Amino acid sequence: MKPREIKKDIYAVGAIDWDRRLFDSLIPLPDGTSYNAFLVKGSQKTALIDTVDPPFEDVLFNNLEQLGVKKIDYIVFNHAEPDHSGAIAAVLAKYPEAKAVCTSKCQTILTDRFMIPVEKFKIVEDKETISLGDRTLEFVHTPWVHWPETMVTYLQEDKILFSCDFFGSHLATTDLFVTDECQAHEAAMRFYAEIMMPFRTNIQKNLEKLEGYAVDIIAPSHGPMYNKPKIILEAYKNWVYDEPGNIVVLPYISMHGSTREMVSYLVEALSRKGVTVKQFDIAVTDIGKLAMALVDAATIVIGTPTVLTGPHPNVAHAAFLANALRPKAKFASVIGSFGWGGKAVEQLAAMLPNLKVEILDPVLCKGFPKEVDYQALDRLADGIEQKHREAGLV
Ligand code: FEO
Questions:
Q1: Three-state DSSP state, 228
Q2: Would the pLDDT of 96 be above 80?
Q3: Is 337 helix (H, G, I), strand (E, B) or coil?
């Protein structure tokens, strides 16, 4: 994508990665992504805000050349992760007069990872400013979005917030600004669920910190920009502050049909009570969809057969992820089956220490479920509905 003007002398110069389908060798990217970088020209100085993933360095350099950029004074690194900062050695080599602007923690990470000498950096404190002449960059430290060194850059005169990962979405699009709000909401929610949710408390503090800034445009470094910032600000407030909904998330695996039968029965029972259930067969599901469902779920019920005395390994993987993502669920349980014995429930419960959940009585059946097992599932459905009512979620 060629450079595109956002406002006079402010350009999008990053790259669109239409074909990427996996991030961190873990996170599915069904809609690709982008590595947004921005050039801001002031009357005296020029700044580049964020760079691109190293395979896209040529796109960045071509864009800067097309704009006739001969000298860059400041290259702002809002975040040290390589999809934004991995091009640091190349851009500093091409623009040797530039200073790398970042937090002190970011400098340490970049020096450790890319061997950039300390003298190439200009460390900025929280709310420090740099003048470009008629434009002013203000750096606001926003730690743990989602690494410890993160900051955002506020262009004061133009009221543009360059937020890097904060408010980002893995969405490849030719649109500079959000045009399809539903699509943008889903992509941003997926990004929040997979990356930001474990840092919900930090995100709350950072949202509060940004409340004092008048923002006309939010320009993240993934996905389209927002010229109606309220859309994404309200979405984030909903995700980090609000109580969970009257929702059960039910990830499961079934090898020979017994666990699936229990899952189907419980889903029916909960549905009849007006509880929304989101069921995921982990053998085939997109874990990003599961992560998104966890954003608002009040209860997690894990379905597993017993394999080698414990939960199915894929269920253990899902439980590990759920524990790492720290969703705001309040209740959890386990259903499933076994052939002759095992400790699936104990092992799964031990895998969820980060979740501040009340464990509801699990239901495990021997072989295929029988009347006594269906009755136990009915009791579990009753218990979930009652807990949701007591928590004021219904
Ligand atoms: Fe888009 Fe945390 O990097």
A1: coil
A2: yes
A3: strand
CA-nearest residue, atom 3 of ligand 1 = 81
Short-list 140, 138, 172, CA closest to 155: 138
Q: Report helix, strand or coil for 114.
A: helix
Quick: pLDDT tens for 198-215.
Answer: 999 999 999 999 999 999
Beta bridge partners of 364: 336
The pLDDT tens digits of the residues spanning 277-331 come to 999 999 999 999 999 999 999 999 999 999 999 999 999 999 999 999 999 999 9
Q: Is the peptide bond before 146 cis (omega within 30 degrees of 0)?
A: yes
150's tokens: 């993160």
- Res. 9: pLDDT tops 80: yes
Structure tokens at 388: 């949701």
Ligand 1, atom 1, lies closest to the CA of 165
* Structure token pair of residue 266: 């419980």
User: How far, in Å, is the centroid of ligand 1 from the Cα of 165?
Assistant: 5
Cβ partners under 8 Å of residue 252, min gap 6: 259, 260, 263, 279, 280, 281, 282, 302, 303, 304, 315, 335, 336
Ligand 1 centre from 385 Cα, in Å?
39
Nearest to 41 by CA among 13, 78, 80, 79: 13
Inter-axis angle of helices 313-325 and 287-294, to 10 degrees?
A: 40
State if residue 222 touches ligand 1 by the CB under 6 angstroms criterion. yes
pLDDT of residue 25: 87
Q: Where do the H-state alpha helices sit in the chain?
A: 57-66, 82-85, 88-94, 104-114, 181-191, 200-210, 230-241, 258-272, 287-294, 313-325, 344-350, 371-390
CB count within 10 Å of CB 332 equals: 22
Query: What integer pLDDT is reported at residue 99 of this predicted model?
Result: 98
List the one residue out of 69, 235, 70, 38 whose CA is nearest residue 154.
38
Tokens 């992560």 correspond to: 291
| Whether 82 contacts 54, CB under 8 Å | yes
What is the phi/psi pair of residue 162, to 5°?
A: -90, 105
Round to whole Å and give the CA distance between 278 and 300: 10
Model's pTM, two decimal places? Answer: 0.96
